């Protein structure tokens, strides 16, 4: 049994996509182990995206994240299945980070049309509906961070 972490971002919550997104995973034998709604504060979102903020090196990126997330409620999930590397399977089902490059058979391709160019024009992060851990290590770290947050 392996586990991973996903977060339905504010744009997915605003569109009411929780059940449709979870159905994609359940169809593939991936089930919810636990879930929680979390109202995001500044410290939490900056800690979650700490590595990304450093890696992308985009001026103002942290401020964009804060504007997009702080005060918003997201839904977090610990998913599990018999897939040996569940995080890889989940990321395959989600599709590429930029929704306009995602195929129609992926969650992002099906439910979003956002792009990096549009996000840049509007001075915000790309709205791609969902975050998923990219490794067993990041899943463990993100599960601990988010599920231990009050």
**Number of domain modules:** 1
Q: For the residues shown, what is the average pLDDT?
A: 95
Distance between the termini: 27 Å
Unreliable stretches covering 5 or more consecutive residues: none
Can you tell me the CATH topology? Alpha-Beta Plaits
Strand arrangement, major sheet? 2-3-1-4
Q: What radius of gyration results from the CA coordinates? A: 15 Å
Please give a handful of descriptors for the protein shown.
150 residues; alpha+beta; Alpha-Beta Plaits; 9 helices; 47% helix
Could you characterize what this model shows?
It contains 9 helices and 4 strands; from the N terminus they run E-H-H-E-H-H-H-E-H-H-H-E-H. The chain is of the alpha+beta class and 150 residues long. It has one domain: Alpha-Beta Plaits. A 4-stranded antiparallel beta sheet has the order 2-3-1-4, sandwiched between helices. The longest helix is centred in the last third of the chain and has 12 residues, at 136-147. The relative contact order is 0.25. The model has no long low-confidence stretch (mean pLDDT 95).
